[in-house]
Amino acid sequence: MGTQAVNSDISIVGAGVIGAAIAWQAARRGHTVRIYDPLLADGVPQTGASWAAGGMLAPFSEGWPGEDQVLDVGAQSLARWPALAAELLADTGIDVLTGRGTLLVAADSADAAELDTQDRWLRAQGHAFQRLGRGEVRDAQPALAKNLRGGLWVEPELAVDNRALLRALRTAAAEAGAELIPHLVTDLPGQVVLAAGSDSAALRPGLPVRPVKGEILRLRRRPGTPEPPTCTIRALVRGRHVYLVPRPDGVVVGATMCEHGEDRQVTVAGVRDLLADAEAVLPSIAEYELADAMAGLRPMTPDNLPLVGRLSDTTIAATGHGRNGVLMMAITVDTVLAELGGNPLPQMKCLDPGRFSWN
Ligand SMILES: Cc1cc2nc3c(=O)[nH]c(=O)nc-3n(C[C@H](O)[C@H](O)[C@H](O)COP(=O)(O)OP(=O)(O)OC[C@H]3O[C@@H](n4cnc5c(N)ncnc54)[C@H](O)[C@@H]3O)c2cc1C
């Protein structure tokens, strides 16, 4: 696992946000890039986690005591996002940012106690955000339900339209010179970046990446109905987490979490719970159109940090991004390009796949 010489001929397996972003930036820096994904034939892959995602860039509101390093890496990646989004806008004309700030709210006293725990932990990690009382929550977003207990305003977080992001990355990668090849890779020839999401272990048996199913809904605003919120709303509703992420035409409501192997079916219970919890927070969504329901597979690792770094002299892993792959796309690109250039980032040593023994 030592420092490698620059190899300018790279094959990338997987064209989700991770593979496509690496392809774009690597091609931009003069590498010869081929990116493989069987689903590229139809435009951008529409069954991977990247198509399903909510698009939150939310290391703080997603964070939880015990996940200090996930918070730290996520915060570093968030800091890189504005420059990356601006570069993508300049290259493609597509602005992927759709929301600024996250408002965390609690539905009852037990939910409020959990919010206190999260707030205390974030402060202990050096991230203090503004607490809001019941009235202040409604002043911030008047369409929210009246009975919410209070909230936490996390101003620096952002949200992107993940589907627009996939399209923009594909365009940017192709224009930078990357070759897009609609093909399922079965072995790993030459200098390879493995970015196959929850399928990564099929190519490197034993790699500690497992699928964790998430169901998610897209609701479209209908004429005459109230506007969607202007920031991401995350709520605890009787102990269940729900989020509403703004889009120009509505909101994305997510997401369930279940360890069901390769199951990608959307269940009645999943849709029922998501809609009930979202409506408890933002009653006006009942008038929106239910435009899309899908399930995606998060590529999870045992410690919830991605695997980014060398697996061998010829293969670099860029996978295992779990709940935060859109957020961590930015830092992953930096880490992989540094590795390809022969100058690995010391501060990203915590992502080295070698932290697990897996074969
Ligand atoms: C419901 C849900 C909500 C989420 N919300 C958020 C969020 O708000 N914010 C956030 O940061 N993250 C979120 N995530 C997580 C995020 O979506 C993932 O971490 C991220 O999309 C992983 O990207 P990827 O490119 O590694 O994987 P994928 O998007 O799954 O892409 C992998 C690609 O590899 C291809 N592939 C697989 N095997 C091969 C092969 N052998 N040859 C060629 N190609 C292959 C597949 O076809 C696929 O297109 C969410 C995930 C889910 C499921």
Task: List the SSEs and their pairings.
Elements: E1 9-13, H1 17-28, E2 32-36, H2 49-52, E3 56-57, H3 68-92, E4 97-106, H4 109-124, E5 130-132, H5 134-140, E6 150-160, H6 162-175, E7 179-181, E8 192-194, H7 200-203, E9 210-220, E10 232-237, E11 240-247, E12 250-254, H8 268-281, E13 289-300, E14 307-310, E15 315-319, H9 325-340
Parallel strand pairs: 1-2, 1-8, 2-7, 4-10, 8-15
Antiparallel strand pairs: 3-6, 4-6, 5-6, 9-12, 9-13, 10-11, 11-12, 14-15
Helix pairs in contact: 1-6, 1-9, 3-6, 3-9
The structure holds flavin-adenine dinucleotide.
In short:
This protein is α/β, with parallel strands linked by helices and 359 residues long. It has helices spanning 17-28, 49-52, 68-92, 109-124, 134-140, 162-175, 200-203, 268-281, 325-340, and strands at residues 9-13, 32-36, 56-57, 97-106, 130-132, 150-160, 179-181, 192-194, 210-220, 232-237, 240-247, 250-254, 289-300, 307-310, 315-319. The protein is built from nine helices and 15 strands.
Provide structural commentary:
This protein has 359 residues and is of the alpha/beta class. The chain has a single domain (9-355), classed as FAD/NAD(P)-binding domain, CATH 3.50.50.60. Helix content is 31%, strand content 26%. The strands form two sheets. Strands 3, 4, 5, 6, 9, 10, 11, 12 and 13 form a nine-stranded mixed sheet that branches. A hairpin with a 2-residue loop joins β10 (232-237) and β11. α1 (17-28) runs parallel beside α9. Flavin-adenine dinucleotide binds at residues 13-19, 36-39, 45, 48-50, 52-56, 184-185, 195-199, 203, 214, 216, 254-255, 296, 298-299, 319, 321-327.
